[in-house]
Automatic annotation (TrEMBL):
It comes from the Archaea. InterPro entries: Crypto/Photolyase_FAD-like_sf, PhrB-like, Rossmann-like_a/b/a_fold, UV-DNA_repair_photolyase. This is Deoxyribodipyrimidine photolyase-related protein. It comes from Halobacterium salinarum. One of its GO terms (molecular function) is lyase activity. The keyword Aminoacyl-tRNA synthetase does not apply. Residues 160-173 have a biased composition (Acidic residues). Keywords: Lyase. Residues 155-183 are annotated as: Disordered.
Length: 503
């Protein structure tokens, strides 16, 4: 007798233990998990509604499903073992650090046993990654990505060289959409009783942050598959050129919007990559920079982050090599209260639907927190609560490593920039109350003084970094010209204003 315990982010029948026709399936809807922080109501709605749909689909196919609604996993297991004493459970290894051990203890305390099997929701297994890495971190994405390309055969020629001759077309992922640009429409899912019921329950039961209305995320395998098909049909071709662009009146551009569905198991990363590659092969409108860019994100960065997290936890969660000690400023929770157009827009998008794309996450939301000096853990907490696709294994390395430079274990330099980058990649600056070309003065863009002040503050740590040589020569020029003191004074005023919710 095998009972598979399916966690809320393991809703897959195409990989893992449910492919083996289990005798019984257990799902526990534990409310306490949703009380751990102020989550986005759309994230809670997505997960709980997807679990209920998953239960119904299994039952429709004749599977014996026990669905416990309880305050905690412990209470859910109490109810389960009262009915099925001494049962043996099987679970896929959760990607989050420490969870497997905690689940095992909970089950053992109730007289059962829990067998933890490999997590089949990724393309690269721990053994494969560790084999590739050998005994010598540091972790480097570029060689890992090449390894994955070879391993999967994705975009490889017969002679073991990459299609097109280059491994990455990152330099062709930074175009600005033309003025008449209009991205294809997205979403439009229709929901039966589960989404409305869960939305009402979430609204009355939990303390959340974010807009519960406008929910438009896939909650079934069928909807997720349609979301994948629509991305491949309508947006994959334009994914590459505009991947790094940010537009004030377009929240999704040509991004796939699939992370949340992949992260809870509704889609497998391999099938997503295969669908994109099939389209690339069978159509002639998908450029190499689009398909390569997409494969790099999904099979490169996503898998890399999972394994870096696996290796670096638990230290990664508290890493703070720059000693940043400020709280996150209030504008992250009240995006309408800031005059900074780019930041207000990005944080507002998170509030509206629990989503912002990767450049908004990295170069706007994280960049500001980094140069402002917010604790990586404060930023992680905000990302964790705000995004529909946030799970510890993916939030923590992205925010602590990439976004905050809390560790240099897998990022070689901080992703800090002045308004220059934002002005180039977005159309926000022309409608902003601040001037992207000024560094001092009341209307000077806050990103500018914070950026130079950040470089000056962390000079001892960062100047020797060979990738920072050029920016430090610019800092030297400002210092030599006697401008640095005024810039740092402006940064101080910006910090005070931002902390007080005035900017
Ligand atoms: C500070 C920061 C925080 C982030 N937090 C999360 C998070 O909580 N959850 C999450 O899934 N992704 C996170 N990411 C990665 C990335 O921004 C999102 O996966 C992506 O924006 C999701 O939107 P999409 O599905 O439209 O992605 P697309 O732009 O269409 O990219 C395709 C897919 O690639 C994968 N991907 C791309 N980059 C990464 C990455 N760095 N790490 C993991 N997967 C990646 C995702 O599965 C995504 O669906 C974060 C990135 C940064 C810089
Ligand atoms: S001027 Fe500064 S704050 Fe305003 S949109 Fe540009 S980068 Fe953002």
């Amino acid at each position: 007798m095998t009972t598979v315990w399916v966690l809320g982010n393991q809703l897959t029948r195409t990989a893992g233990p449910l492919t083996d026709d289990p005798d019984r399936v257990l799902l526990i809807e534990a409310a306490a998990l949703a009380r751990r922080r102020r989550y986005h109501p759309q994230k809670l709605c997505m997960v709980f509604a997807a679990m209920r749909h998953f239960r119904d689909e299994l039952r429709d196919d004749g599977v014996d499903v026990v669905y416990e609604r309880a305050e905690t996993f412990g209470a859910g297991l109490d109810a389960y073992f009262d009915a099925h004493p001494g049962d043996d459970l099987v679970v896929q290894r959760p990607a989050n650090h420490g969870t497997a051990d905690r689940l095992r203890e909970l089950v053992a305390a109730r007289g059962g046993s829990l067998r933890v099997v490999a997590n089949a929701q990724f393309r690269c297994s721990p053994a494969q990654f560790d084999d590739w890495m050998g005994t010598e971190p540091p972790f480097k994405h570029r060689p890992f990505y090449r390894h994955m390309r070879r391993e999967t055969g994705y975009l490889m020629r017969d002679d073991d060289t990459p299609e097109g001759g280059d491994w990455s077309y990152d330099d062709q992922n930074q175009e600005t959409p033309p003025a008449e640009y209009d991205s294809p429409s997205v979403g439009g899912f229709e929901y039966d009783e589960h989404v409305p019921a869960v939305r009402d329950w979430v609204a009355t039961e939990f303390d959340t942050w974010g807009d519960p209305d406008g929910f438009d995320w896939p909650v079934t395998r069928e909807q997720a598959t349609r979301a994948l098909e629509s991305f491949v049909a309508d947006r994959l071709a334009g994914f590459g050129p505009y991947e790094d662009a940010v537009l004030a009146d377009d929240w999704h551009l040509e991004h796939s919007l699939l992370s949340a569905a992949v992260n809870i198991g509704l889609l497998h990363p391999e099938e997503v990559a295969d669908a994109a590659l099939d389209a690339y092969r069978s159509r002639d409108d998908i450029p190499l920079n689009s398909i390569e860019g997409f494969v790099r994100q999904l099979i490169g960065w996503r898998e890399f982050m999972r394994h870096v997290y696996r290796h670096q936890m638990p230290g990664l969660a508290t890493a703070n090599q720059l000693g940043a000690d400020r709280d996150l400023p209030p504008l992250y929770w009240t995006p309408t209260a800031t005059d900074m157009a780019c930041l207000g827009s990005a944080a507002g998008r998170v509030y509206d639907r629990g989503y912002a794309h990767h450049i908004e996450r990295l170069m706007v939301l994280s960049n500001f927190a980094l140069t402002y000096g917010a604790r990586p853990q404060a930023l992680t907490e905000w990302f964790h609560g705000g995004f529909v696709d946030a799970y510890d294994w993916v939030v923590t390395p992205n925010v602590v490593g990439m976004g905050s430079f809390g560790t240099d274990a897998f990022t070689s330099k901080p992703y800090a920039s002045s308004a220059n980058y934002i002005d180039k990649m977005t159309d926000h600056c022309s409608d902003c109350a601040f001037d992207p070309d000024s560094t001092v003065g009341e209307r000077a863009c806050p990103f500018n003084s914070l950026y130079w002040d950040f470089l000056a503050t962390h000079e001892d740590t960062l100047r020797s970094n060979h990738r920072m040589g050029l920016v430090y020569s610019h800092l030297d020029s400002k210092r030599d010209a006697g401008k640095l003191a005024a810039i740092r004074e402006r940064a101080q005023r910006v910090r005070e204003g931002v902390a007080a919710g005035r900017l």
